[in-house]
Specification:
Length: 833
């Protein structure tokens, strides 16, 4: 079968697909859309029914936990999740609803009276679709009702927690001697219960779960040893004070103080968490023992944190590392006072956990909080009378001076206020204020030190003065600029660490539960609404990560394709550059689209903005867009490539780089000239190496007119035959011009690489000059040399005689004509005689 017949059959086969279908029926049925799954509505109803039962169960739990803030905090996220589940059930039917709506639109309106009736199949389908749409509307309404009910319950939980917090703080308890008597009696009973409970638990564990206990303790000790040794090895220089430094720099003191607080505290917290998790995982802890053990670990970590903070700031034994200007005795008194307040607060919280675990009476809780508040108030009064202050430059070993009047007044008022609140019966408020003074105060001081450290390390040249900066410079050979950039990054990292560790700790102290912080963080990082726009920080970070990965993959593919495939295929360097650049543009565009999609940015919502920007681009960015498009045209058409020798106007040199906006040309003087791409597209550009590197050279030669032109031509061709020029096309000599004194010739030859034309010209000129001198052919011009002429003796005598005769004739011609002198007149004679 011939090619024409094949094409004819192919055309006949495709033609029916291109022609519109013929209408044979009087009332054609519209094309059917793809149907959604039949069980979509039933699944949504089942999901809503299940959510409704769960909501009823949660409502009952909320009513039972009215006085338990932590339990309410746990229930609120579950209620909010049910609201989202209800909305998701409604969303699941949206696709089916859109299908039904589109199908009804295709069927058109119901025929009015007097019009021909619809076909029976269409009528049945319309009724079925209307029924299904009504069912979907019912599902949507039920889902919205359930979502509203769940949202109202979540708001109710928030209001209950707010009221519970207010009642706890502002509830007044009558304080009398009877309270302490009842507290002593209840305390004795609780001590007995505690001893019996803990003793019974320990005997049971030792008798029946000794292996589990030993395994948990051994693993805990191993984890502690690893944390200690690893921390000393990795973070030792950051937390240890070098005794050889007599006067450490302020930034060094700040950094050592901050890291000596945070790193050991985090390590101790990790150790405590690991111990509790191991004991719980090995089923060693009983339900009544677990809260007490958990609170014991928490207060131990808290005491270690306060102790590390006081040692870092006050440095009682190392005054040269002290951050505040206080005396040695004042530093020691302040350290013990702060630790005593922290201990009183820790004992109060631990005993509170014991009371809850053992079900102790409320009077015992009131008594312990009252005593802790009074103790902390008395310690604050004691601190107000300490004399720790020093003058600038004063010896730390000397006696200090009192606090400034304002600070001592604040301390005294706070101490008296705590004692007064506790005595008049506001024990909950006094306990809350005491906790904020000790724990929140410690967190705020640590955050302040961290912020000062971040600010100090971000100063230009600050990192180079620290031990860490010196180690980085020595290990990675970093210069001052790199160290400053690392210092700026470290500063931002410290700020972020301070916020991530400090803010949640303060929120926990102010009565918020971990679930609240987790919910807020999840909402902050997943959904921030600005009007109708929803922004997700997690989505944006994921988009940036995917964009960075896309760039890395693009760069790797560029290097692999250029260095492996195209090099082995001996592809022209210019082609390699064009392919590499095109792949780079495509990879960046693809990575950008993937990143935008992952970030959840709806490009359709930006259509109006893009339309407005297009007008600005048309006027303000016209040249930039023109250069960009010109760059793409240069890469596609390739009128020149990287490495070509081009001439563009007054610019001549080699193409070094073709970018999006401009092309870099390096002249022969090693000057880089940036030429906009639009100039190269719209102007005339000469390319010496466009298709190949073949080039022609011309050597002009001028001799005296007395020379034989054929001989000169032969000499020039002989010189060209010995030179490194192409034999095909062969060199040739052109007799350009002649005059009465000169003969002008031009030697023309071709070289394989026009880039070597300069050296070939030099070699040809040298060879031509040497050959002309050898053949005694003088060059014409003002500086032409005098060449002696050899003759036989007879010719020389004849020439000499002719020269002498010419000289004699020239002498006679030059001699002047003399007049004859008059004769003298004789005496007496006639003058005319």
């Amino acid at each position: 079968m011939t090619t024409s017949k094949r094409l004819l059959f192919l055309l006949l086969a495709i033609l029916p697909l291109l022609l519109p279908p013929l209408a044979f029926a009087e009332e054609p049925a519209p094309p059917a859309l793809p149907a959604a799954p039949a069980n979509t509505i039933s699944e949504a109803n089942d999901s809503l029914e299940k959510a409704r039962r769960q909501l009823a169960d949660l409502r009952k739990q909320v009513d039972d936990a009215r006085d338990n803030d932590s339990k309410l905090a746990e229930l609120k996220p579950k209620v909010e999740q049910l609201a989202r589940t209800a909305l998701e059930a409604s969303v699941s039917t949206r696709e089916r609803f859109n299908y039904i709506k589109g199908r009804l639109d295709q069927l058109g309106p119901v025929p009015a009276e007097g019009q021909p009736p619809e076909a029976e199949p269409i009528k049945e389908e319309r009724a079925k679709l209307a029924e299904e749409r009504a069912a979907i509307n019912a599902v949507t309404g039920s889902a919205e009702s359930l979502s509203i009910e769940a949202t109202q319950m979540a708001n109710q939980i928030t209001e209950m927690r707010r009221n519970l917090f207010s009642e706890t703080l502002l509830k007044r308890t009558a304080v009398s001697t009877g309270v302490f008597e009842d507290a002593l009696t209840a305390g004795a009973e609780q001590g007995t219960d505690l001893q019996r409970t803990v003793g019974g638990w320990f005997r049971f564990v030792w008798a029946f779960k000794r292996e589990s206990l030993m395994a948990a303790v051994s693993l805990s000790l191993l984890i502690g040893l690893l944390l200690y040794s690893g921390g000393r090895r990795v973070a030792g220089p950051l937390i240890e004070r070098n005794r050889r430094i007599e006067k450490p720099h302020y930034i060094t003191r700040l950094m050592i103080a901050f890291w000596s607080i945070t790193i050991p505290t985090l390590a101790v917290g990790a150790f405590a968490f690991a111990c509790y998790s191991l004991l719980y995982s090995f089923n060693v802890l009983r339900p009544d023992i677990a809260p007490m053990v958990s609170q014991l670990f928490v207060v131990c970590v808290g005491l270690y944190f306060v102790s590390a903070l006081t040692r870092a700031v006050l440095a009682p034994k190392r005054p040269e590392w002290r951050l505040v200007n206080v005396s040695n005795s004042g530093a020691r008194r302040l350290e013990w006072s702060i630790f005593a307040m922290a201990s009183a607060n820790a004992v109060d919280y631990f005993l509170g956990a014991v009371n809850v675990a053992l079900g102790s009476p409320v009077v015992l809780t009131v008594a312990k909080s009252l005593i802790a508040s009074i103790v902390i108030g008395v310690i604050l009064l004691w601190i107000a009378f300490i004399r720790p202050m020093l003058r600038p430059g004063e010896d730390p070993a000397s006696e200090g001076r009192p606090w400034p009047r304002a600070l001592s007044t604040v301390l005294m008022l706070t101490g008296f206020g705590l004692i007064a609140l506790a005595v008049i019966g506001y024990v909950g408020l006094a306990r809350f204020v005491a906790t904020q003074i000790v724990v929140t105060g410690a967190i705020l001081v640590t955050m302040y030190i961290g912020i000062l450290s971040g600010r100090a390390i971000g100063v230009q040249g600050a990192l180079a003065r620290t031990y860490l900066g010196q180690r980085l410079a020595e290990r990675y050979q970093l210069n001052e600029v790199a160290l400053d950039q690392a210092g700026l990054a470290a500063s931002l990292g410290i700020y972020l660490l301070v916020l991530l560790l400090g803010v949640p700790g303060i929120l926990l102290q102010w009565g918020f539960q971990p679930g609240d912080i987790e919910s807020w963080a999840l909402q902050l990082f997943t959904e921030i609404r600005l009007g109708s726009i929803s922004i997700s920080i997690v989505g944006i970070l994921a988009g940036l990560v995917l964009f960075a990965l896309g760039l890395l993959v693009t760069r790797w593919f560029q290097r692999w394709l250029d260095g492996t495939v195209m090099v082995r295929s001996h592809v022209d360097p210019g082609v390699r550059n064009s392919v590499r650049t095109a792949i780079g543009y495509a990879g960046v565009a693809l990575a950008g689209l993937i990143g935008i999609s992952a970030a959840g940015i709806n490009l359709s919502s930006l259509a109006l903005v893009a339309g407005a920007l297009s007008l600005g681009i048309g006027f303000g960015l016209q040249n930039i867009v023109s250069n960009f498009v010109s760059g793409l045209i240069l890469l596609a058409e390739r009128p020149f490539k990287v490495g070509d020798w081009v001439v563009a106007g007054t610019t001549e040199g080699f193409v070094k780089r073709i970018s999006v906006r401009a092309t870099e040309i390096e002249t022969f003087q090693r000057q880089t000239i940036i030429v906009p791409n639009s100039v190269l597209i719209n102007g005339q550009v000469g390319n010496w190496t466009h298709r190949n590197k073949l080039g022609r050279i011309e050597i002009p030669v001028t001799v005296f007119s007395g020379n034989d032109p054929r001989r000169v031509t032969e000499l020039l061709l002989e010189v060209a035959a010995a030179a490194p020029v192409l034999r095909n096309p062969e060199p040739n000599v052109v007799f350009v011009n002649f005059s009465s004194s000169t003969l002008e010739f031009e030697l023309r030859a071709f070289v394989a690489d026009v880039l070597s034309a300069g050296s070939v010209k030099t070699e040809l000129r040298t060879a031509i000059l040497e050959r002309l001198r050898q053949e005694e052919i003088p060059l014409a011009g003002p500086g032409a040399p005098t060449i002696p002429i050899t003759m036989d003796p007879e010719s020389a005598q004849l020439v000499s005689a002719m020269i002498e005769n010419a000289k004699a004739q020239a002498g006679r011609t030059a001699e002047p004509v003399r007049k004859p002198s008059p004769k003298p007149v004789e005496e007496g004679g006639d003058e005319t005689g």
